[in-house]
Design brief:
The complex is a heterotrimer of chains A (about 230), B (about 170) and C (about 775). Chain B is mostly helical and about 170 residues long. Chain B has eight helices and three strands; from the N terminus they run H-E-H-H-E-E-H-H-H-H-H. In chain B, helix 1 crosses helix 2, helix 1 packs across helix 4 and helix 2 packs across helix 3. Classes of the chains: A alpha/beta (about 230), B mainly alpha (about 170), C alpha+beta (about 775). Chain A: GO terms for molecular function: ATP binding; ATP hydrolysis activity; transmembrane transporter activity.
């Protein structure tokens, strides 16, 4: 493993929604280039953990350290900027803007970072080639299959060269073969760019693409590597 | 499947006669293959020799089946170690896993713990298979997929079993 | 017998509308409130004619205008003197009463005649007089208040009115009406065709957007409904029955809306008494729509709801596994969309120029033409939005790109959002133009100069002109805030009596007073002058020759007085006329009081010009009080630079009020649709925020998304509105001029409503963008 310290580390995370304790003292850490699967029964707080780590949700208590910066001390604008620049996201579905063409969708994060449309779309197309969906460039998300759409989402998550990729059930809506393809592309691309991947999944075959897994149960994390 | 560990586990809830042990085993785990008395006798002797059980009392009339066995401290530790050791991932593990889950419940141990440990072990194997698949030819991929799907099935069953903890606990202790 | 499949489907739809869980309820409620507001507005509009008729009826029932009169006092005669006054901007209806016998007719709303020095007042006047604000008026109406006028004697709940007992009526000269009853059967002046046209247009321009609004309201929640229908297809409903179910749902929503609308209407009706808009108040009881109109509304609204629903579903194929919009809808073609506006112009065109000859316009032709033109907007707008949006570049900011792409995907929905506003604005622009165009003919430049005399008090003929006028003027002159009260008496001069061919005017007054009508180099009492350069010099040229013997006063013969012989002195000088405070250049002869003929009797007509001190607050109220005190029968006229036809003013205010209501109503529906669209995209919005999209980017994108169709809609509305305005101006033969301030202000109001909607939809948008949106699936 990479001897360097963790890229992203969280300790003592607490988050309550209403009366539900989603996180209850969760710990997490990931090193550059590492793929960590987050597993656990549904409702255990997997997604909440991912949302906290990505700075989408602020935890009620606990600290999240990204390269020496404390996420919970940042304001919304700073965290948004971080998500735009350093993080990439893939969700189960519903993340592509239906009105934009696929290449425009992929270029969107670059455009949000202020890139010119032409440059952004050129880079976007390169990434689409890598995940083999460049032929869909001018199609709209409604016109492509689920697997293709998810590969477009993979391209979009990688287009800004993120340090951490957050994937929340990225194959959840796909059949086995498409799921395998997406996972292969995702992990290959992440490895080639030395990006860390936080992979929330409940499927062991998907989790098998990870380097190690942690289990979230009742809002707490079990790091299986150190448990044994 | 280790009959010795299973019988030890059954003793953990209280001393039993050899006859009772056989009946309990048959009822819970031996649906299609009931134990022979001889099997119970030889296993218990071995356990006795290893100090994992002790004879709690002998009923009048004698004979090995009339002995009442109790688990020793060492026996309890042995059961715990066995439960915590993940099974080597291989297809058709179900019966061993099933026995472990039921015993974990019978002895008030956490099935979730067992699940997490086993999953970790499974994933270790699955990662190797996945990596082989990545670089292998089509035949490799098919072989690996076959293994991966079976291993995943084990885990899914385990997950389901863990999720049914409550229901199962009621059945087992009934 | 069990209901047929059609009825069953409809009923199922109704059930869905009522029991579809929280979502179903919300949708039905939204539709209901939307339709309800529209219905309430329709009912109020249809009730206005009857409300006005009821006011007229009560006004007639208390009028002495054409009431039966008697020559001599009798058991059943009543002397009734007009004593209307004004307080600030409000008219006060006032009558002085003196019953002459036990059976004298009692005005409606009174239980007994107020005695001398007492008065009965309307509740509003009562409140005003008791308030601090009304203290000035109390000085004027200082009689003891002994009764309150009942509702049946008032034309509206806010009317200021009083009846005062006054024994002086008997002495106030003989011309006070002596009536034995009340009536005003005089034919009301028929509205001239241009005014009729205006009123028709106001109604059309206000009701059209309401119709568009109702059509929008029926489509609230349409996308969710489509998904539900898809689920029904899955369990075996066929395409036809799914449409019937949708129709049933729409019908239920609109019937619910009708009920709500009736409720809203009743609420409005109840609160009508408390509302005093544009000095017009209405009794709740008067606000009753004609039954056939109410029935028409009750039938037309659900029918329209069903029609709109089916029309909206025509491009949609509801498949068991989801809703498919017909793959790529045929590109909207402009040809048939041009038909309605062209047909509208074709209907209006033949009527061009008819207003000039005072001819009548065919009401149905006008309504048809205008409706078709306005409908043309709703037909053209989707095409326009699609055509423009598909050509828009997606360069520039991300917000712009998102907005343009979204509009390109669903330009129809965008156009639908602004249809109502566009129709309302177009109608309002056309009307404003028409108003501005015909304003010239309805607003007279009076030539009066209010700085010289703010009030002209006309002394009724019948009183002994010269002496009384001077006395009244002196009395008014004392009042606070009055700079000067100038009395001028006028009478006729002729060379013969009985049936003179020509007459000249004789104006009598002090030197100071005469200087109001002529430039006098010098003047002393006893002087006489002949005016040069007057407006009507013909008679004067012939008659007014110095040294000539003339007749003055009742030269046409009169039963009360005879003409007086009078010689125009030989030393009469010629002086130049100047406009009097009325703006009129008098002609004829001027005589100072000392030189005037004596014993003119009551044949003269006199007026007192009252100049006010603008630095004294409420000077005008003091002056009015002084006038009323001097003689209740004097009517003070307020001299103004311009004067508008009263009816014209009320139409214009009606339009403004209506247009603002309609625009607000449409704004509400816009907001609802906007929020609905945002809710549909909750998941996407959250995902976009998750990967770092600034909330401001998304907010600006939503603004663009609204602003672009609105800009197009308002542009089209301006074009159609100005076009319609030009046609209408030509119809009434008024000079065609585009009233850009009106165009700008109506467009501005429309844009303001949209901006308001955008701002109001921002907080929910921000809420939707919270990461919780990611958790729901």
């Amino acid at each position: 493993m990479n001897p360097a310290g963790p890229l992203l580390a969280a300790r003592g995370l607490h988050k309550t929604y209403g009366h539900t304790k989603a996180l209850d003292g969760a710990e997490f850490s990931i090193r550059p280039g590492e793929v960590v699967a987050v597993m656990g029964p549904s409702g255990s707080g997997k997604s909440t953990l991912l949302h906290c780590l990505a700075g989408i949700v602020t935890p009620d208590a606990g600290s999240i350290d990204y390269q020496g910066r404390e996420l919970s001390a940042m304001n919304d604008a700073e965290r948004s900027a971080l998500r735009r620049g350093e993080f990439g996201f893939i969700f189960q579905f519903g993340q592509l803007v239906p009105e934009l063409t696929c290449v425009e969708n992929v270029a969107l994060p670059l455009r949000l970072n202020g890139a010119r449309r032409r440059d952004a779309e050129r880079t976007a197309l390169e990434w689409m080639e890598r995940v083999e969906v460049d032929d869909l460039a001018s199609k709209r998300p409604g016109e492509v299959s689920g697997g293709q759409g998810q590969r477009v989402a993979v391209a979009r998550s990688l287009v800004t060269g993120p340090r951490v990729l957050f994937a929340d059930e990225p194959t959840g809506a796909l059949d086995s073969l498409n799921g395998e393809r997406v996972m292969q592309l995702l992990t290959d691309a992440a490895r080639s760019t030395d990006a860390a991947v936080v992979l929330v999944t409940h499927e062991a075959r998907v989790a098998a693409y990870s380097d190690r897994e942690i289990v979230v149960r009742d809002g707490r994390c079990r790091d299986m590597e150190h448990a044994l | 499947m280790s009959i010795g560990h299973t019988l030890l586990g059954l003793l953990e809830s209280g001393p039993r006669h050899g006859y009772d042990l056989k009946r309990a085993f048959d009822e819970k785990f031996g649906h299609d293959r009931p134990l022979h008395y001889g099997q119970v006798y030889s296993t218990m002797s071995r356990l006795l020799k290893n100090g994992l059980v002790e004879v709690d009392g002998i009923e009048a009339g004698g004979g090995p089946e009339r002995k009442r066995y109790a688990i020793t401290e060492a026996g309890v530790t042995d059961v715990a170690r066995w439960l915590a050791t993940p099974e080597k991932p291989e297809p058709y593990l179900q019966s061993t896993l099933f026995t472990k889950v039921v015993l974990a419940l019978l002895t008030g141990r956490s099935a979730a713990e067992l699940l997490d440990t086993q999953r970790s072990e499974h994933l270790r194997m699955m990662r190797v298979l996945t990596e082989r698949k990545r670089h292998g030819d089509l035949a490799d991929q098919l072989i690996c997929d076959h293994a991966l799907f079976h291993l995943e099935a084990d885990l899914r069953w385990l997950e389901l079993a863990a999720a049914r903890l409550d229901t199962l606990a009621r059945e087992v202790t009934a | 017998m069990s209901p047929g499949p059609r009825t069953r489907d409809l009923l199922m739809g109704v059930r869905f509308a009522l029991s579809g869980g929280r979502e179903g309820w919300t949708r039905t409620l939204l539709t209901g409130v939307g339709v309800g507001l529209g219905v309430a507005l329709l009912l109020v509009t249809t009730a206005i004619p009857s409300a006005l008729a009821a006011r007229d009826a009560r006004a007639s029932a208390r009028s002495e205008h054409t009431a039966p009169t008697a020559e001599q006092p009798g058991r059943d005669t009543l002397l009734i003197g007009e004593a209307d006054t004004r307080f600030r901007a409000d008219e006060v209806h006032g009558r002085l009463l003196k019953p002459e016998g036990p059976d004298a007719p009692l005005p409606p709303g009174l239980e007994s005649f107020p005695a001398d020095g007492e008065m009965a007042v309307s509740p509003s006047l009562d409140a005003l007089l008791k308030s601090e604000d009304g203290a000035l008026l109390r000085e004027r109406l200082d009689q003891r208040i002994t009764a309150v006028i009942g509702d049946e004697g008032l034309i509206g709940p806010g009317e200021l009115a009083y009846y005062a007992g006054d024994d002086r009526l008997r002495q106030l000269g003989g011309k006070v009406p002596r009536v034995t009853g009340f009536d005003n059967s005089a034919e009301p002046e028929p509205l001239d065709p241009v005014l009729t046209l205006l009123i028709l247009l106001v109604f059309v321009a206000l009701l059209m957007p309401v119709a568009v609004f109702i059509a929008t309201a029926v489509r609230f929640g349409g996308e969710r409904r489509d998904r539900r229908l898809a689920a029904l297809r899955l369990v075996g409903a066929d395409a036809r029955s799914v449409r019937r179910i949708a129709a049933g749902e729409a019908m239920a929503g609109s019937v619910f809306g009708l009920v709500l609308g009736a409720g809203f209407f009743l609420a409005v009706r109840q609160s009508a008494a408390g509302v005093n808009l544009f000095r017009l108040s209405v009794f709740p009881g008067d606000l009753d729509p004609a039954p056939w109109l109410a029935v028409l509304v009750a039938l037309a609204v659900p029918a329209a709801a069903v029609a709109v629903t089916l029309f909206a579903l025509r491009g949609v194929v509801i498949e068991p596994l989801g809703v498919v919009r017909t793959a790529r809808p045929a590109r909207r073609r402009v040809v048939w969309r041009l038909l309605p506006p062209l047909a509208g112009v074709a209907l209006l065109y033949p009527m061009i120029g008819q207003g000039d000859e005072g001819g009548e316009f065919s009401q149905w032709q006008v309504i048809g033409g205008v409706v078709l033109l306005l409908i043309g907007i709703t037909a053209l707008l989707p095409w326009l939005v699609e055509a423009v949006v598909s050509r828009l570049g997606t360069g520039g900011s991300v917000a712009w790109q998102l907005a343009v792409r979204r509009l390109q995907m669903s330009s129809g929905a965008a156009a639908r959002l602004v249809n109502g506003i566009a129709v309302a604005v177009a109608g309002a622009i056309a009307l404003q133009m028409l108003f501005a165009g015909v304003e010239g003919s309805y607003t007279r430049n009076t030539g009066a100069d209010p700085t010289r005399a703010a009030i002209m008090a006309m002394i009724p003929s019948g009183s002994d002109a010269a002496g009384r006028t001077e006395a009244v003027a002196r009395q008014i002159d004392q009042a606070e805030g009055v700079t000067r009260a100038t009395a001028l008496t006028g009478t006729e001069l002729a060379t013969t009596t009985g049936d003179p061919q020509r007459t000249a005017m004789l104006t009598i007054g002090s030197c100071a007073a005469l200087r109001e009508v002529a430039v006098l180099p010098s003047c002393k009492d006893g002087d006489t002058f002949v005016l040069d350069g007057g407006d009507d010099p013909a008679g004067a040229e012939e008659i007014a020759k110095p040294g000539r013997k003339l007749y003055a006063g009742a030269v046409y013969g009169d039963d009360t007085a005879e003409a007086v012989r009078w010689m125009l002195p030989a030393d009469t000088r010629r002086v130049a006329a100047r406009p009097d405070p009325n703006g009129e250049k008098r002609s004829g002869v001027l005589a100072t009081n000392g030189a005037a003929p004596r014993n003119l009797g009551s044949s003269g007509h006199a007026s007192v010009y009252i100049q006010l001190d603008p630095s004294v607050p409420d000077a005008v109220e003091h002056a009015r009080t002084a006038v009323l005190k001097a003689d209740p029968a004097i009517t003070p006229f307020h001299l103004q630079d311009t004067e508008q036809s009263g009816r014209f003013v009320s139409i214009r205010t009606g339009l403004l009020l209506g247009a603002s209501c309609v625009l607000l109503l449409i704004g509400a529906s816009l907001l609802v649709s906007q929020l609905e669209q945002l809710r549909e995209r909750k998941k996407l919005l959250s995902a976009l925020v998750a990967f770092g999209t600034r909330r401001s980017t998304l907010s600006v994108s939503v603004l663009w998304q609204t602003a672009v169709p609105i800009a197009l809609g308002l542009g089209l509305a301006m074009a159609v509105g100005v076009g319609l305005g030009v046609v209408l101006l030509k119809m009434v033969a008024a000079p065609v001029a585009v009233d850009w301030t009106a165009v700008a202000s109506m467009t501005g109001v429309g844009a303001g409503v949209v901006l308001l909607v955008a701002v109001l939809s921002l907080p929910p948008l921000l809420r939707l963008m919270r990461p919780e949106g990611l958790r729901t699936e």
